[in-house]
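Section 5.1 Outputs to date
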Amino acid sequence: MDTSGIRRIVRNIIRPLKPWQRIPTMLHPNELRNLHDRAKEVKGAGLIADLGTWLGGSTGALAAGISANDSPATAKVKVHAYDLFLVDDFSKEQKLIPEIQLLNIGDSFLPTFLKHMAPWKDRVEAHQGDLTQQQWVGGPIELMHVDIMKNWDLTNHVSSAFYPHLIPGRSIIIHQDFAHYWTGWIHLHLYRLRNYLEPVQHVPHTSSFVFRLRTAIPAEALNRKVSPDDLDPTEVAAAFDWSRSIMPKDAVQRFTIDAAEAMLCYHLGDKARCAALTKKATEAETEFKRQYPDHIGRSELRLVQRFVDKG
């Protein structure tokens, strides 16, 4: 069993850290620090959107950052946090979070989220519900953290409902699932928008990647859906090549992009190609480890291998 997430939760609970660093979360400490520092740097040109906050780890980091921002123009900037805020099987599996264990599947954990947000209650606004049924609150978005592109529909809705409010030349978009094995559709989505986005930074040792909106994105591009029924194999291959090209050469997470490419084949029913890509990437990762013996972490190819082994 992969226990890295559980270990991370334990670390975030027991360390003598600041309040925003102690909220139970699956995010890496580097990701929390990046969110905090990005919010601390905003200029007040727009609001902050946090799409997929779970128990509030990302929102707390953003809220603490904007609270520490010393620009008078940011005094009224809020973090707008979107989530279902409902207990599901995944939440119940997190045995080390007592507040969740006291709830049942389907119960709302919004009160828990709000309790975590108490230090920044005036800087946070929660939006509960299915994101595909929600719209942005209005006004420009200067900073957007996206940790909700868990399927095709959510990806398309973020593109059509939230991206139009980004500020050309200024807005920062942080895609938390950029280097995650399950969410291969993100790479096609970003590839189609690559001419409008500037790659800024891979957050070290994590799945997060930071982009800046370079120029305004035409509505037809934002409304074009990524769909399993509309995939050109040549474009898909080019999309993953592009994503790999913007990753640091010494980041083992680049192989999780390989994992995402293989897993997308699995999602689409091509198990043989999934197995072939996984084998090839695993061999390449082995060679990478010899070339970079001091690297930190590992890719998620092993998780795809479990699906390959199931057949």
